[in-house]
């Protein structure tokens, strides 16, 4: 569990480490003492919880008494836990004055990974999943965000398919919603941005992609949910190249058509020579195309 209540106020384990992943020991000490005095309670069942903050695993809150609390019984991989902390830290850095929540429960009962409430602008929600959810679940979530003017940022875990030429159906859903795909490399503290370009040259389908990796130290998010970096410039460069490629292709096709029509053209001087040949009885000298034309137009 990443959240619990301390004297009625929500606290989150993602605040226990700095950006270099060092513990803020004063805070660890304060929350451990608070747990000892029974002041830390589960935000879902109200049961007493304690803080575990060891050197290997991500810090977490756990119930003193193992009970049937859905939140307390959630099991998550260390990759997921660390990734969530990294995204939370990224939001805190990007919106120092914003109110940042981890595991935010929305009005429709769904949770998201991190949430920024912003009274002046749109709220921003981060959804971080290592596995794909179903298409129906994705659409339900996406519709809720759009209906409520919330800006979503969908984040996936890093895997081999990130480097594939074609994006998967799920990544395509994400790209259709937010314009690009985001992958979190939580092992190396990096964000990978990718946009796929699927286009046609005549009947030939082509796929290209733009992919850039950024250290989390070098990146922030603005109030429109955009990552502040050169990714969109790189995408624009690829789009320019694609447009050039399409333009060249269309030019080549036009040129071919012009040549083909020129090839089919009946030249009056050749036609005249052909007619003379025929009149002289030298029909074997006339090409089939001119002969056909002469017969078709009854020129003899
Ligand atoms: Zn609980």
From TrEMBL:
Which positions fall inside the Competence protein CoiA-like N-terminal domain? 35-71
What is a single Pfam family found in this protein's UniProt entry?
A: CoiA_N
**InterPro entries, per the entry:** CoiA-like_N (IPR057253)
- Designated name of the protein: Competence protein CoiA-like N-terminal domain-containing protein
| Species, as recorded | Anaerocolumna sedimenticola
């Amino acid at each position: 569990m990443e959240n619990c209540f301390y004297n009625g106020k929500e606290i989150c384990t993602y605040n226990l480490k700095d950006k270099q992943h060092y513990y803020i020991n004063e805070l660890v000490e304060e929350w451990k003492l608070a747990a000892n005095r029974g002041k830390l309670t589960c935000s879902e069942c109200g049961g007493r919880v304690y803080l575990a903050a060891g050197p290997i695993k991500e810090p977490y809150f756990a119930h003193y008494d193992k009970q049937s609390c859905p939140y307390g019984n959630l099991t998550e991989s260390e990759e997921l836990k660390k990734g969530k902390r990294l995204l939370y830290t990224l939001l805190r850095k990007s919106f120092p004055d914003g109110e940042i929540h981890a595991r935010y429960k929305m009005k429709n009962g769904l949770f998201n990974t991190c949430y920024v409430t912003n009274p002046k602008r749109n709220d921003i929600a981060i959804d971080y999943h290592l596995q794909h959810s179903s298409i129906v679940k994705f659409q339900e979530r996406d519709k809720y965000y759009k209906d409520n003017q919330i800006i979503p940022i969908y984040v996936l875990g890093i895997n081999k398919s990130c480097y594939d030429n074609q994006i998967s159906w799920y990544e395509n859903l994400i790209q259709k919603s937010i314009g690009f795909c985001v992958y979190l490399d939580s092992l190396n503290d990096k964000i990978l941005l990718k946009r796929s370009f699927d286009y046609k040259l005549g009947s030939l389908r082509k796929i290209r992609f733009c992919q850039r990796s950024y250290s989390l130290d070098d990146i922030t998010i603005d109030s429109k949910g955009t990552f502040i970096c050169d990714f969109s410039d790189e995408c624009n460069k690829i789009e320019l190249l694609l447009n050039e490629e399409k333009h060249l292709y269309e030019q080549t096709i036009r040129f071919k058509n012009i040549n083909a029509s020129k090839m089919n053209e009946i030249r009056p001087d050749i036609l005249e020579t052909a007619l003379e040949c025929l009149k002289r009885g030298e029909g074997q000298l006339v090409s089939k195309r001119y002969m056909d034309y002469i017969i078709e137009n009854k020129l003899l």
